[in-house]
């Protein structure tokens, strides 16, 4: 069974750093792109970027380039989303999803990130 | 790369049909056949319900159908049921392995 299991909820202060994870199981992790999607409170879905775990080729949405880093460790079938300096506006649910033929067919359960002083 | 345009809300009575539009540009919806639709129930992760404009993943009822004309794609839910009440998002491939989502449409079953 294909599953994407994300790390747990985080509460951080502005200016802190954070790295959340997404572990893929039940499929060959290195054969599929993994995407990250943001959902701010009460808002819609925003594509942040994707990574191909086999070679760590990463692409970013224009609003997120330079703001976050997407990485992967294929030895443990895990993708990551990282911030160096969190802002209150980063408060959101972050989803990872497996990409197949330009679609996201399996999704993680979401990671709630709360940034508040 | 702007978000695709969807109406914020749509509604229908049980058994009726509702159609949601998704308007992009010649660089995304109009350029590729890779339009997908996602259903998000309250408090849940999105679920893929249509891909490549009109293909349904296994297990998705045939009440869900899709089409595309020019820069606009559409999702139709026929025979509306109470369980269809959710937020629906379109998404399109936008070249160079980039994607864009629509703003979402809240479907209410009256």
Can you write the helix and strand succession of chain A as a string?
A: EEEEEEEEEEE
Task: Give the quaternary arrangement of the chains.
Answer: heterodimer
- Poorly predicted runs of chain A are none
Shape of chain A: globular
Radius of gyration of chain A: 13 Å
| Sheet having the most strands of chain A | 7 strands, mixed
What does the largest sheet of chain B look like?
6 strands, mixed
Strand content of chain A: over 45%
Task: Give the % helix of chain A.
Answer: under 10%
Strand/helix succession of chain B: EEEEEEEEE
Q: Sum up the overall morphology of chain B in one term.
A: globular
Name the beta content range of chain B: 35-45%
CA distance, first residue to last residue of chain A: 40 Å
- Nearest-integer average pLDDT of chain B: 95
The overall pLDDT of chain A, averaged over residues, is: 96
Any chance you could write out the topology, listing elements then pairs?
The complex is a heterodimer of chains A (117) and B (110).
Chain A: E1 3-6, E2 10-12, E3 18-25, E4 33-39, E5 45-52, E6 57-60, E7 69-73, E8 78-83, E9 92-100, E10 103-107, E11 111-115
Parallel strand pairs in A: 2-11
Antiparallel strand pairs in A: 1-3, 3-8, 4-5, 4-9, 5-6, 7-8, 9-10, 9-11
Chain B: E1 9-12, E2 18-23, E3 35-40, E4 47-50, E5 64-69, E6 72-77, E7 86-93, E8 99-101, E9 105-109
Parallel strand pairs in B: 1-9
Antiparallel strand pairs in B: 2-6, 3-4, 3-7, 5-6, 7-8, 7-9
